[in-house]
Amino acid sequence: MASSTHWSLCLVLISLASVAFAAAPRRPVDVPFGRNYYPTWAYDHIKYISGGSEVQLNLDKYTGTGFQSKGTYLFGHFSMHIKMVPGDSAGTVTAFYLSSNNNEHDEIDFEFLGNRSGQPYILQTNVFTGGSGNREQRIFLWFDPTKEYHRYSVLWNLYQIVFFVDDVPIRVFKNCKDLGVKFPFQQPMKIYNSLWNADDWATRGGLEKTDWSKAPFIASYKGFHIDGCEASVNAKFCATQGKRWWDQTEFRDLDALQWRRLRWVREKFTIYNYCTDRKRFPVMSPECRRDRDV
């Protein structure tokens, strides 16, 4: 009888430990470049260092370059450590984004807009659903992103998309399907990273052009991390609810500390938010009205 009771207790403890493990975010594990990604274009403009665990993208007047994930994912947690182009980076865009890559595509964007030497980078985020974007938000970063690596992450589940900078939430896009707003939950996405020239709009609306005498421009990536539901022919039925840490109940919303941090970013560093742009959008989008901190 005692042995039976002991065995039952062990099973309970193992079950509780499994639940705790599933709910807790796992520490990101850096993996070699070739395991999860491959070059997208201009292979000769990519340099691999540190045994393939670090990648440098080069932009010159002829071309930029980029790389993408081998797999396609529906929901998950994705992050990248990036060190931006130093010095005069006007006209350049360093990007880390997810995209379904079709006509009515879904997309989740980090775009880092270069600037003249000594001026701050601008981080632009955007969300496309069903091929429609125009949801730009822009912030100044509270550090120099060219000096060392910083971690940029996306948490994407059925309830929300959260953008993080070094674990500080800078933006939340809630699932507002009940308000008639499309939310990306059916189209799997690849993860893309790129460095390219966009001097027709990237810096001061295109007023500052790329100074090609400063080329090549170099952005560095490492810490490739993917923890998502990898797509298959049945990807739209990727039902992971309750099985992975990023779709547990506690990740359906920000916690109190995260909301305070988000409010701090909005008050101190936000320079543009489509939700408050009445000239461009006279009628506020429904998802903006639900956002309690706009």
Automatic annotation (TrEMBL):
Main localisation: secreted
Ranges of residues in domain GH16: 19-221
Locations listed in the record: Secreted, Cell wall; Secreted, Extracellular space, Apoplast
Post-translational modification: Contains at least one intrachain disulfide bond essential for its enzymatic activity.
Active-site residues, record numbering mapped to chain: 107, 111
Alphabetized UniProt keyword annotations: Apoplast, Cell wall, Cell wall biogenesis/degradation, Disulfide bond, Glycoprotein, Glycosidase, Hydrolase, Secreted, Signal, Transferase
One GO cellular component term noted in the UniProt record for this chain: apoplast
Glycosylation sites: 115
UniProt GO BP: cell wall biogenesis; cell wall organization; xyloglucan metabolic process
Entry similarity comment: Belongs to the glycosyl hydrolase 16 family.
Function (record text): Catalyzes xyloglucan endohydrolysis (XEH) and/or endotransglycosylation (XET). Cleaves and religates xyloglucan polymers, an essential constituent of the primary cell wall, and thereby participates in cell wall construction of growing tissues.
Entry protein name: Xyloglucan endotransglucosylase/hydrolase
Lineage of source species: Eukaryota, Viridiplantae, Streptophyta, Embryophyta, Tracheophyta
